UniProtKB/TrEMBL annotation:
The keyword Transmembrane helix applies. It comes from the Bacteria. It comes from Pedobacter alluvionis. The lineage of its organism: Bacteria, Pseudomonadati, Bacteroidota, Sphingobacteriia, Sphingobacteriales. This is Preprotein translocase subunit SecE. The chain crosses the membrane at residues 32-53. Keywords: Membrane, Transmembrane, Transmembrane helix.
Amino acid sequence: MIIKLDTSLFRLSRHKAETVKKVATPLTKDQWITADRIVMAAMFIVTIIGAILF
Protein backbone atom coordinates (compact mmCIF):
# COMPACT_ATOMS: atom_id res chain seq x y z
CA MET A 1 0.00 0.00 0.00
CA ILE A 2 2.82 2.45 0.77
CA ILE A 3 4.50 1.70 -2.56
CA LYS A 4 1.29 2.49 -4.44
CA LEU A 5 1.06 5.88 -2.73
CA ASP A 6 4.72 6.72 -3.42
CA THR A 7 4.46 6.23 -7.19
CA SER A 8 2.47 9.46 -7.58
CA LEU A 9 5.19 11.35 -5.72
CA PHE A 10 7.88 9.98 -8.03
CA ARG A 11 5.94 11.17 -11.08
CA LEU A 12 5.79 14.71 -9.68
CA SER A 13 9.49 14.78 -8.85
CA ARG A 14 10.49 13.67 -12.35
CA HIS A 15 8.90 16.76 -13.90
CA LYS A 16 10.89 19.06 -11.64
CA ALA A 17 14.13 17.26 -12.44
CA GLU A 18 13.62 17.84 -16.18
CA THR A 19 13.59 21.65 -15.92
CA VAL A 20 16.20 23.53 -17.90
CA LYS A 21 19.09 24.84 -15.81
CA LYS A 22 19.67 28.59 -16.03
CA VAL A 23 23.16 29.90 -16.64
CA ALA A 24 24.22 32.69 -14.29
CA THR A 25 25.20 35.83 -16.16
CA PRO A 26 27.81 38.10 -14.58
CA LEU A 27 26.71 41.55 -13.46
CA THR A 28 27.76 44.61 -15.38
CA LYS A 29 29.69 47.46 -13.75
CA ASP A 30 26.55 49.59 -13.45
CA GLN A 31 24.65 46.74 -11.81
CA TRP A 32 27.49 46.24 -9.29
CA ILE A 33 27.44 49.96 -8.44
CA THR A 34 23.67 49.90 -7.94
CA ALA A 35 23.85 46.78 -5.77
CA ASP A 36 26.67 48.31 -3.72
CA ARG A 37 24.66 51.48 -3.12
CA ILE A 38 21.63 49.46 -2.00
CA VAL A 39 23.73 47.44 0.45
CA MET A 40 25.43 50.54 1.84
CA ALA A 41 22.08 52.31 2.29
CA ALA A 42 20.61 49.28 4.05
CA MET A 43 23.61 49.04 6.39
CA PHE A 44 23.38 52.77 7.14
CA ILE A 45 19.67 52.52 7.99
CA VAL A 46 20.26 49.47 10.19
CA THR A 47 23.05 51.32 12.00
CA ILE A 48 20.77 54.29 12.70
CA ILE A 49 17.96 52.03 13.92
CA GLY A 50 20.40 50.10 16.12
CA ALA A 51 21.73 53.34 17.62
CA ILE A 52 18.21 54.50 18.43
CA LEU A 53 17.15 51.20 19.98
CA PHE A 54 20.30 50.57 22.01
